Amino acid sequence: MEPFEPTEPRESGASAARGDDLRTVRDYYAGGDEHDRLRTGAGRLELLRTQDVLRRLLPSSPVSILDVGGGTGAHARWLAGDGHRVRVVDPVPRHVELARRLPGVEAAAGDARALDADEGSWDVVLLLGPLYHLTDAADRARAWREAVRVVRPGGLVVAATISRFASLHDGLRTSLLDDDAFRGMVARDLAEGRHQPPPGSPWWWFTDVYLHHPDEPLEEARAAGLPAPERFAVEGSAGLLPEAEIDARLDDPERRRRLLWALREVEREPSLAGVSNHLLTVARRP
């Protein structure tokens, strides 16, 4: 989860267009730069671990990658640097503008539910943001089906989701659980999966999103026609560490190597999936 550092409270109803997920996304990200979130602490670990998993899944030779919901290009930057052809699709105009500035990266406005791409035209499709911003199950199903449609047979689909338990974990490792309103929000998250910060809550409580139970993305992938999905924990239990401790480990080359080794060892362990705030679901189109 781990959104932005504190700035200022939201105005009541600032992103309250229930049922209009694109407007909610645009409203939220107008308040900060998603790229900043991935520079420190758990966000930095999320970026490095996603990179670590993807580099092991992708072939060494260049492939074409459609980065759906790719934001400002945090992943597109290094993927293009690795020699891949990368196109970012995102609904936030500011994100598209920034992604276009990256060397070797194409970017265009678009909707994960209706991609402007031909069937089977991409080697890899990434859904690293859309599935939690699409709070309606039917919309998530459309995004999955679109990813399957535009990836080539045998091509790879990789989707990120936020764990049902992410807000609880954030509260446990900080003082947020001292706040009655935050605890009430967490209780609803756990019961329903629909994360809805109350009006007037600060930005770092995040925005309206859907928090998946760890088994749900596998079910969604199968329903979209991906018969053998696999699940990778991203931050794993390391995401429960304080921000300063995560950065201290990542700043030290040897401690960083040991941390990444440990997370790789249990990244596919089913009994630990719910500990990770982010999960990657990986499958190939038949």
TrEMBL record:
Residues 65-155 form the Methyltransferase domain. Pfam families: Methyltransf_25. This is Class I SAM-dependent methyltransferase. One of its GO terms (biological process) is methylation. Coiled coil: none annotated. InterPro entries: Methyltransf_25, SAM-dependent_MTases_sf. Keywords: Methyltransferase, S-adenosyl-L-methionine, Transferase. Residues 1-20 are annotated as: Disordered. The lineage of its organism: Bacteria, Bacillati, Actinomycetota, Actinomycetes, Streptosporangiales. GO terms for molecular function: methyltransferase activity.
